[in-house]
Amino acid sequence: MEGVGAEGASAASPVAQWGHDVWRMYQYYLDKTTPHTVYRWIGTFVAIAIYCLRVYYVQGYYIIAYGLGIYILNLLIGFLSPLVDPEIDPSDGPLLPTKGSDEFKPFIRRLPEFKFWYSFTKAFVIAFVMTFFSMFDVPVFWPILLCYWVVLFFLTMRRQIAHMIKYKYIPFSVGKQKYGGKKSSASSSGSRGD
């Protein structure tokens, strides 16, 4: 009996090992894209354009587009929200200083940019693949879905912006002071007048 179990485990082992190797290679290349924010988003917008062209060309799959829009809205809320919500956990106090002597606490997102990008891109790729299966082409009157999504978007963003104003946080670094760090030693040593 032990020989049969060991034989079955050794037969599945190469397949499991291959799957593990493929996953590690995928993770390796995904990790290499981390510092290249602009190029990642350009690739994502290319995927979005391909998906939109597919939906426009086929003239269908609007329910997938609606579900995708709701999911993207959910991701956007996570991206714009702080990690520690002052409304839920008021014990930490305000996240940003209210007077000059307070300690500065930087804005930390509930959903970091890389995870936001990864989920965003993965959602569009999955939606694109779903457009090749006719079972997902549910006949709907798309203007109603579009109007409902727009109303949902504006109500959600209004609530999110009111939350930002109430707790005085800005989830973007536009207009915030940036610190340069140390100057290189080559430039400081070259200015010596010995």
From TrEMBL:
UniProt subcellular location: Membrane
Keywords: Membrane, Transmembrane, Transmembrane helix
Predominant cellular place of this UniProt entry's protein: membrane
GO BP of this protein: protein retention in ER lumen; retrograde vesicle-mediated transport, Golgi to endoplasmic reticulum
Keyword flag Cell division: no
Pfam families attached to this UniProt entry: Rer1
GO CC entries: endoplasmic reticulum; Golgi membrane
Regions that span the bilayer: 38-57, 63-84, 140-157
Listed InterPro entries: Rer1 (IPR004932)
Membrane protein topology class: Multi-pass membrane protein
Family assignment from sequence similarity: Belongs to the RER1 family.
Biological role: Involved in the retrieval of endoplasmic reticulum membrane proteins from the early Golgi compartment.
Name of the protein in its database record: Protein RER1
Upper taxonomic lineage: Eukaryota, Viridiplantae, Streptophyta, Embryophyta, Tracheophyta
